[in-house]
Amino acid sequence: MSFNPLGADVPLSLRSLQDEMNNLLSRFYHGGVSTGPFDGQEWAPPIDLLERDECYVLRMDVPGVSVDDIDLSYQEGVVAIRGNKPQPDQEKAKERRVRGERRFGAFCRKVDMPVDINADAISAKCIGGVLEVTLPKAHTSIPKAIKVEKAQ
């Protein structure tokens, strides 16, 4: 029996190992820790990128961020999401912060898309503190089944 550090359901390959390391580093740099020395920002919300047959769906946790404070753009295969999570009003004079883990301030996430996207059909909505961006694949990027005919 062989050992697979990524789990039994993940095929072990150099590519999957590289992807897992990239995900690990991304979670570390953007998962609520200070990222300033690496990308110039104090924090960035986590994202998920899901693939469907006809589109990609990008989800980003943005609780406490107004949709008016989110700027979404797509250019040359890169989705950019910028925003600002304002710091709450100053604590009451009688309050003393004992522990502070929540992050505030400006953020920017850029995601390279693996295929061409139909930029004119991109849509976004924010429900319950989760931004959901639908990125339809360009028609040239959607796999097409081709029937093989028998030669006569």
Report what the structure shows.
With 152 residues, the protein is α+β, with helices and mostly antiparallel strands. It has a domain at 45-88 and 103-141: Immunoglobulin-like (Sandwich). The chain has helices at residues 14-30, 36-39, and strands at 47-51, 55-61, 70-75, 78-85, 105-112, 123-127, 130-136. The strands form 2 sheets. The protein has a 4-stranded antiparallel β-sheet, with no helix packed on it. Strands 3-4-5 form a 3-stranded antiparallel β-sheet, with no helix packed on it. It is elongated, with a radius of gyration of 20 Å. 11% of the residues are buried.
Count of DSSP helices? 2
| Alpha carbon gap, first and last residue | 49 Å
Task: Give the class-level CATH name of the domain at 45-88 and 103-141.
Answer: Mainly Beta
How much helical structure, as a percent, in the residues?
A: 10-25%
- What structural class do you assign from the helix and strand content? alpha+beta
Question: Which strands sit side by side, in order, in the main sheet?
Answer: 1-2-7-6
Residue stretches low in confidence (pLDDT < 50, at least 5 long) are: none
Please report which band the strand proportion falls in: under 5%, 5-15%, 15-25%, 25-35%, 35-45% or over 45%.
Answer: 25-35%
Please tally the β strands and state the result: 7
The whole-number mean of residue pLDDT values reads: 82
CATH fold category name of the domain at 45-88 and 103-141: Immunoglobulin-like
Q: Which word captures the global form?
A: elongated
* Secondary-structure arrangement, i.e. CATH architecture of the domain at 45-88 and 103-141: Sandwich
Secondary-structure element pattern, one letter each: HHEEEEEEE
Characterize the biggest β-sheet: 4 strands, antiparallel
What is the rounded Rg? 20 Å
